[in-house]
Specification:
It is built from three helices and 13 strands; from the N terminus they run αααβββββββββββββ. It is α+β, with helices and mostly antiparallel strands. The strands form three sheets. Strands 3, 6, 7, 11, 12 and 13 form a six-stranded mixed beta sheet that branches. Strands 1, 2, 4, 9 and 10 form a five-stranded antiparallel beta sheet that branches. The protein has a two-stranded antiparallel ribbon with strand order 5-8.
Length: about 200
């Protein structure tokens, strides 16, 4: 068998090494898009979430953010919520909201606890307000709202109790609100955007 020219062998070795280098670079670059546990935890903080938003993204313009108050049940085993408009005696209602950017471009919106308020009323009386709850740890949290994409907030329980300056849950000794078929309305305000009222019944 005829031997290859040393120049040809050298060129083939250089070409093979170049291909390996390109493949290694591609593998490294792809790995940067796969967030590990540490990265996911960092991005969960309000500061990291805000810094991850591109500088050219501006705050949502007035009128483009749509807000819907939600009330229902929560299954801890599956981490899923289901909307309800009637609750049997002893059933704990859970409150959350959905927010949608109805505009044509992505924008920034503050969904932090400092600017989020749930209110439950019946007639002219306010029975419960999250503004009465302990608010020492409230904070701002600016997120990216993509155009025409709905985001769902985490749900939280309401103990079916009154709220006041003395407290807002059963552990603080607050009394139960009337039930037995009583009708209530839930409303949420997030960063000055107000939802429509949602009616529900406590049996």
């Amino acid at each position: 068998m005829a031997q290859l020219d040393p120049v040809i062998i050298k060129r083939r070795r250089i070409a093979a090494l170049s291909i390996l280098a390109v493949l290694a670079l591609l593998v490294w670059a792809f790995s940067q898009f796969l967030p590990g546990q540490d990265q996911a935890q960092v991005e969960a903080t309000p500061e990291a979430a805000e810094s991850a938003i591109a500088a050219e993204i501006t705050d949502c313009a007035p009128g483009v953010v749509s807000l819907s108050a939600m009330i229902g049940s929560y299954d801890a085993a599956t981490e899923t919520s289901e909307t309800l408009n009637s609750f049997e005696s002893g059933a704990t209602p859970y409150l959350w909201y959905e927010v949608t950017n109805t505009g044509l471009v992505d924008c920034r919106f503050n969904v932090g606890t400092r600017v989020t308020f749930f209110t439950i009323t019946s007639g002219e009386q306010t029975y419960w307000s999250s503004g009465d709850c302990l608010r020492e740890d409230v904070q701002d949290s600016t997120v990216l709202l993509e155009a025409n994409v709905t985001r769902t907030a985490a749900s939280g329980p309401w103990d079916r109790v009154y709220s006041s300056e003395e407290g807002c849950n059963a552990d603080q000794g607050m009394p139960k609100v009337p039930a037995g078929g009583a009708t209530y309305k839930l409303k949420v305000v997030v960063d000055n955007v107000i939802s429509e009222d949602v009616r529900f019944i406590l049996n």
